[in-house]
Design brief:
Blueprint: E1 2-8, H1 14-27, E2 34-44, E3 47-56, E4 59-67, H2 70-97, H3 99-105, H4 115-129
Parallel strand pairs: 1-2
Antiparallel strand pairs: 2-3, 3-4
Helix pairs in contact: 1-2
């Protein structure tokens, strides 16, 4: 996984840069197929704007936050992105589980009868009438 950290209109402390990289690495325990991450920190007057974007196998996830300190904005953006990644993981697990879970809960309707079942039922009914 490649992590790019960019600072616009400001100087980013090495500690803040390390924090951003650590938080992105932490996300890889939820989703293992993170290909690339971009962290952009910019300063406008007295506030810091942080944008984190992840590219995960055919999907792009982004998070925007602003705060008075760069560290706070990075933390908030990473937290929001972590929520998105957790939801993605849950969706993937739910899809992998498939109908087994829903069938156990009784949420899957019974399958419709096939033509062969209809013919066998009609033949049995006709045999009973005779």
């Amino acid at each position: 996984m490649r992590i790019h950290v960019t600072a616009r209109h400001c100087e980013l402390d090495p500690e803040d840069r390390l924090l951003a990289e650590q938080r992105i690495e932490k996300l890889s325990r939820f989703v293992r197929d993170i290909q690339e991450a971009h962290v952009t920190v910019s300063q406008e007057k007295h506030r810091y704007l942080v944008e984190i974007s992840l590219r995960v196998r055919g999907r792009e996830m982004t998070s925007h936050e602003e705060a008075d300190a760069a560290r706070t904005a990075i933390e908030r953006a990473a937290d929001r992105l972590e929520q998105q990644v957790r939801r993605l993981k849950e969706r993937r697990l739910e899809r992998r589980r498939g109908d087994r879970t829903r069938a156990a809960d009784g949420l899957v309707p019974p399958e419709p009868a096939t033509e062969s079942d209809d013919w066998s039922q009609r033949a049995e009914a006709a045999g009973d009438e005779e």
